[in-house]
From TrEMBL:
Full protein name: 2-oxoadipate dioxygenase/decarboxylase
Source organism (scientific name): Pseudomonas fluorescens
One matching Pfam family: HGLS
Keyword terms: Dioxygenase, Iron, Oxidoreductase
Cofactor(s) the protein requires to work: Fe(2+)
Region forming the signal peptide: none
The keyword Iron is assigned to this record: yes
Coiled-coil blocks: none
Any one GO molecular-function label of the UniProt entry: dioxygenase activity
Superkingdom of origin organism: Bacteria
Record EC number: 1.13.11.93
Family statement: Belongs to the 2-oxoadipate dioxygenase/decarboxylase family.
Top class in the EC scheme: oxidoreductase
Length: 197
């Protein structure tokens, strides 16, 4: 049960999803074109197939049609993945599913963090596909050592994000001001950076 002064994890997830979409619109010009294409396609389908429009209206999905549905991130260490799990938990998200990409020649395994309850999904269906590099599967010893050295030097979370994750766990949630700061600082983990360290 949420404390009355805490922001719902679902609303934090909704705000984060919107902030991430806004960030991508600035960082990736083709993202805007993609979103316009999706909007045009949705409009075309709804205009040409009234049955689909009725079904989406009856389920309430029409309200969420334009919401961001997913993001993705790749991390390099188990510690980064563990911290991401804590960060996503603040937003009411948990790991669902397991994907081993090694048969495709990609040295990672993955999961999707998302809300799991229908009410939470109604607020925000946002999910993040999260992949963890498996260093032990990099065959070249020099490349593996370089990757390990690079990963050992980096921190993908801001100090404020880490503090707010701790706060949410200790308090059982975040206040409005903390939730606003959390979204700003959590977003930095997903922002494009020109260097890894």
């Amino acid at each position: 049960m949420n404390h009355p002064n805490f922001v719902s994890p679902d609303l934090i997830r909704q705000r984060f999803s919107k902030a991430m979409s806004d960030m991508y619109r600035v960082e990736v010009p083709l993202y805007v074109a993609l979103m316009e294409l999706v909007e045009q396609t949705n409009r075309h389908v709804l205009d040409s197939d009234p049955q689909v429009a009725r079904q989406l209206n009856s389920t309430g999905e029409i309200e969420r049609l334009d919401l961001e549905r997913h993001g993705a991130i790749r991390v390099g260490t188990a510690a980064e993945l563990a911290t991401l799990a804590r960060l996503f938990a603040v937003m009411g998200m948990q790991p669902v599913g397991y994907y081993d990409l090694t048969p495709a020649g990609v040295p990672v395994h993955s999961t999707a963090f998302r809300a799991v309850h229908e009410e939470a999904l109604q607020v925000s269906p946002f999910r993040v596909f999260t992949s963890l590099l498996r260093l032990e599967l990099i065959e070249d010893p020099e490349l593996r050592a370089f990757a390990q050295s690079t990963l050992d030097k980096r921190s993908i979370f801001t100090p404020t994000a880490l503090t707010l994750i701790d706060c949410a766990e200790t308090q059982g949630g975040l206040t409005e001001a903390q939730a606003r700061d959390f979204v700003v600082h959590a977003l930095e983990t997903f922002r494009w950076h020109h260097s890894a360290t």
